[in-house]
From TrEMBL:
GO terms for molecular function: phosphate transmembrane transporter activity. InterPro entries: Phos_transporter (IPR001204). The lineage of its organism: Bacteria, Bacillati, Actinomycetota, Actinomycetes, Micrococcales. The chain crosses the membrane at residues 40-62, 74-95, 139-162, 223-245, 257-277, 312-333. It is a multi-pass membrane protein. This is Inorganic phosphate transporter.
């Protein structure tokens, strides 16, 4: 049973990486493509390459931060919990893509893992309590702290930056905004590679540890880094344009300058967050919040309140839905463990 769970877990981990790249590609590219700072093809290729670079950077330079705070038992129960969490996360990402909603893969996976471990504890398969303070903080940062910070910074920076450009020609401002959007897209993609690559490496490594294989979490296996980098790059190349349309047009309409502010704030937070704090941030929620913050600083508000409410509702229900589905799958597997 352990061998089967390990093989299934590794396959689901690879699929999750590809789906994650596909689902999150619009976070970096929605605004630059809409403002014609980047063409769709160039944007996808750039984002794929930078994502891969972020994965290798995380694997080689940030190995001390690969381990999340969620306690996973290194046995068949841990393998089953990861399999259930990955399955629920993949399903949620596909479902939210179909809805065209930017949702967090980070909180989906953490919620699924916590749900599976709570299910295992309910049937006495493990004695560890997964709801530790550190685990809850890992949920709070991508779900609450990062979006609120991104929204506030983007909202606050529009007016002073606009004041600095008050004497510039409109064409010059537009060109500079497009350059800033393209640069911000690269920063968002790199931050995505750092955070999601680090987490994906942990998933692969933990599955191997649960199977009793001699691998080190502190020194990732080179083949794992290659698989994760290639998976994110391939997924990114397919780009979930349904979500891009929501971010750039359905949720709010903003001009190139405010789009540049949003890209700059999101890119800076994701880059700094990926290198300075050992907690994963959500590229989807950070980027969407920055877009909303910058867009609110317009003379004529163009926020589609109905769509924004749907987006926030998706964010709120991600953890409980993925946790419930994952716990249900774990309980269904429990007689075999």
């Amino acid at each position: 049973m352990l061998v089967l769970l390990t093989v299934l877990g590794l396959l689901l981990a690879a699929v999750h990486v590809v789906v994650n790249g596909f689902h999150d590609a619009p976070n970096a590219l929605a605004l630059p493509v809409r403002s014609r700072a980047l063409t769709p093809k160039v944007g996808l290729v750039l984002s794929a390459l930078v994502n891969a670079a972020g994965v290798f950077t995380a694997g080689w330079l940030l190995t001390e931060w690969i381990i999340p705070a969620t306690p996973v038992p290194l046995n068949a129960v841990g393998s089953a919990a990861l399999v259930c969490a990955l399955a629920s996360t993949i399903a949620w990402n596909v479902f939210t893509w179909w809805l065209g909603m930017p949702s967090s893969s980070t909180t989906a996976l953490l919620g699924g893992l916590l749900g599976a471990l709570l299910g295992a504890r309910a049937v006495d398969l493990t004695e560890q309590d997964p709801l530790t303070a550190a685990a809850l903080s890992q949920l709070a940062v991508p779900l609450l702290v990062a979006p609120l910070l991104a929204y506030g910074l983007a909202w606050a920076l529009v007016v002073p930056l606009l004041h600095l450009l008050r004497h510039s020609e409109p064409s010059t401002t537009t060109f500079r905004s497009q350059v800033a959007q393209a640069t911000g897209a690269a920063a968002i993609a790199f931050g995505h590679g750092l955070t999601h690559g680090r987490r994906a490496v942990w998933v692969f490594t933990t599955l191997l540890l649960c199977a009793g294989l001699p691998v080190s979490v502190r020194t990732p296996e080179p083949w794992i880094l290659v698989v994760v980098a290639a998976g994110l790059a391939v997924g990114t190349l397919f780009g979930a344009w349904r979500i891009a349309y929501t971010l750039s047009s359905r949720m709010i309409t903003i001009d190139p300058f405010r789009g540049a502010v949003a890209q700059g704030v999101a890119g800076s937070l994701l880059f700094l967050g990926g290198t300075l704090i050992p907690v994963s941030m959500s590229t989807s929620q950070t980027t969407a919040a920055a877009i909303l913050g910058a867009g609110r600083q317009q003379r004529f508000h163009t926020v589609n309140v109905r769509v924004v409410r749907r987006v926030i509702l998706v964010w709120v229900v991600t953890v409980p839905v993925c946790g419930f589905v994952s716990a249900t799958l774990l309980l269904a597997l429990s007689p075999l463990l």
